[in-house]
């Protein structure tokens, strides 16, 4: 009886230890969550992949220099619930992306919403 309890305790402890890194993966601590910034540019590619989808755009900075930006989205299931599809964004689309920039200054944004040149707006987050 004691051996069975010990095995169950060890199994549960092991599950707890391996589940902690899985939860940590979904942290947004690397982003400045207090501020939304706009990034206006042209889509170069859209990766419809798990665990996160990505949009890559080229945007001009204040001096007219082209910068390559990465827009990180959520999982495909979450995006599908927000009405996204693998062909929602295409290379050549002109967009304005709004999101939280990486705290370390990289041209990386956790996308909140995207606005297309025709005025269509699409949320990247499901509540």
Structure summary:
The protein is of the alpha+beta class and 127 residues long. It has a domain at 37-123: OB fold (Dihydrolipoamide Acetyltransferase, E2P), CATH 2.40.50.140.
Q: Could you characterize what this model shows?
A:
The protein is of the alpha+beta class and about 130 residues long. It has a domain at about 35-125: Beta Barrel (OB fold (Dihydrolipoamide Acetyltransferase, E2P)), CATH 2.40.50. It has two helices and six strands. The protein has a five-stranded mixed β-barrel with strand order 1-2-3-5-4. The protein starts with a helix and ends with a strand.
Features:
single chain, 127 residues, alpha+beta, OB fold (Dihydrolipoamide Acetyltransferase, E2P), 5-stranded mixed β-barrel
Outline the biggest β-sheet.
Answer: 5 strands, mixed, barrel
What form results from the Cα inertia axes? Answer: elongated
CATH architecture of the domain at 37-123: Beta Barrel
Instruction: Give the terminus-to-terminus CA distance.
Output: 46 Å
How does the helix and strand content classify structurally? Answer: alpha+beta
Question: How much of the polypeptide forms β-strand, as a percent range?
Answer: 35-45%
* Spatial strand order of the main sheet: 1-2-3-5-4
Order of helices and strands: HEEEHEEE
Q: Identify the CATH class of the domain at 37-123.
A: Mainly Beta
* Low-confidence residue ranges: none
The CATH homologous superfamily of the domain at 37-123 corresponds to Nucleic acid-binding proteins
Count of individual helical segments: 2
Task: Return Rg in Å.
Answer: 19 Å
Mean residue pLDDT? 87
User: Can you tell me the CATH topology of the domain at 37-123?
Assistant: OB fold (Dihydrolipoamide Acetyltransferase, E2P)
Helix content: 10-25%
Number of strands: 6
């Amino acid at each position: 009886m004691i051996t069975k309890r010990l095995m169950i305790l060890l199994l549960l402890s092991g599950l707890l230890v391996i589940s902690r890194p899985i939860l940590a993966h979904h942290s947004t601590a690397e982003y400045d969550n207090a501020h939304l910034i706009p990034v206006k540019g042209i889509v170069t590619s859209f990766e419809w992949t798990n665990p996160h989808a990505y949009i890559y755009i080229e945007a001009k900075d204040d001096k007219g220099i082209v910068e390559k930006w990465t827009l990180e989205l959520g999982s495909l299931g979450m995006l599908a619930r927000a009405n996204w599809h693998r062909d929602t964004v295409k290379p050549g689309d002109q967009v304005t992306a709004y999101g939280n920039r990486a705290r370390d200054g990289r041209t990386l944004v956790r996308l909140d919403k995207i606005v297309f040149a025709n005025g269509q707006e699409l949320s990247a987050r499901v509540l």
